[in-house]
Specification:
Elements: H1 6-12, E1 19-24, E2 28-34, E3 41-48, H2 52-66, E4 70-75, H3 85-97, E5 105-109, H4 113-123, H5 128-155
Helix pairs in contact: 1-5, 4-5
């Protein structure tokens, strides 16, 4: 499936089908999923990043198990809005797995999502060791919540 805009996603969605988000790291992949009403984002356990075929298989299993309508993937733009090597790597990742996972992908600006996720976890008094295991999924959750809020705004 292809990459679509969030505005196009609104027309694609079926009722009660959740959306998931991905915060792509070099070692781990943060995952979050919406509730069926697409109001709230909930972090899920990390996926360990493996070879592209295995990672795609893991994401496909997750998508089928949870009946996912679409994946939102955090796009790591530079602070000036340009695309650097990490953004190019994210585009290549989606291009490679979209042959295996036949649901739409939506890119979403993830600038400062990891900083925000870390602040939330610090405010929750989570230890540094535990934070490192939760920050990617918390970041995915923040990214997804922004998209859910945007979808809600477009539907009203």
């Amino acid at each position: 499936m292809s990459v679509i805009l969030v505005e196009d996603l609104v027309n694609y969605l079926k009722s009660n089908q959740p959306i998931a988000s991905i915060d792509l790291g070099s070692k781990n992949i943060g995952i979050a999923i919406s509730d069926s009403g697409r109001r709230f984002a909930n972090p899920r356990p990390l996926l360990v990043r493996k070879k592209i075929s295995q990672t795609a298989s893991d994401l496909l299993f997750f998508a089928n198990k949870e009946n996912i309508a679409a994946f939102v993937i955090g796009m790591p733009f530079n602070m000036d809005g340009s695309e650097g090597p990490r953004a190019q790597s994210t585009r290549a990742f989606v291009r490679n797995i979209s042959d295996i996972i036949n649901i739409p992908f939506v890119f979403w600006d993830e600038r400062l999502s990891t900083v925000s996720a870390n602040r939330i976890l610090i405010d929750m008094d989570i230890s540094r060791k535990k934070r490192s295991k939760k920050v990617d999924s918390m970041s995915a959750s923040l990214i997804l919540q922004e998209v859910l809020d945007r979808i809600h705004m477009l539907q009203t």
